[in-house]
Description:
- By secondary structure, this protein is of the alpha/beta class.
- The protein is built from 8 helices and 7 strands; from the N terminus they run E-H-E-H-E-H-E-H-E-H-E-H-H-H-E.
- Strands 3-2-1-4-5-6-7 form a 7-stranded parallel sheet, with helices on both faces.
- The longest helix has 30 residues, at 111-140.
- The relative contact order is 0.14.
- This is OLC1v1012741C1.
Amino acid sequence: MNSSCTAQKLNGKVAIITGGASGIGEATARKFAEHGARAVVIADVQEEKGRQVAESIGSDRCTFVKCDVTDEEQVKSLVKSTVEKHGQLDIMFSNAGTVSKCPQDTLSLDLDAYEKLFTVNVRGMAACVKHAGRAMVDAGDRGSIICTASVMAYCGSAYSIDYTMSKHAVLGLVRCASKGLGEHGIRVNCVAPGLIATPLACGAFGMSREELEKRFEDDFVMKKSGYLKPENVADAVLFLACDDSKFVTGHNLVVDGGFVPRGL
């Protein structure tokens, strides 16, 4: 990392990234540090991975906090400890999420599995928005909250309906929260990635990164640009976190390379 060659778009900012131990969260943590964030707090249930990422970025800049977003008290404590340690919270990237362990269609929907997924993808997201929003209001009306949605937030799905419903709910949360927090000067947006071969996605499909990218290569319009990577989404999150987007709120920024989901 050579920060001297990079515009410091987040100079002095303090950020929390949930689900920051791998995939999009890890790429965003590195991007935030590269752009001058004073403190990046990685929150995840993957303790070993989270600590490794934080250490690789640098303990002077990045720390790890174990946090299960399904437990509101843990989210509240995460926000509180960040503010107490660093004096402020400028950015919340609510990125933690999960996928179904098996195909979920309309006629065989496992409602217990559906509830577990919603607890992470919707309840956890709402808890992060709630407590980050409170901290930002208390600090004097400032801040940016970004949530991770999905391309599935604007289309239907035959075989992943619980995940698809949860991402529609994230989009609804962002639209509502942007209205409620806008009067406080707090922006709320989301990113909607297309399919990326993250560890979570590879595990869900039971494929390696190379196998997954090959499986869905025909679903991307921008074939000459290569495969969609976590770093591409991190660039979009950076835009929504910094002052380049200071008049953008309630927006769903799609980062999908023209992805047209088939067979999902």
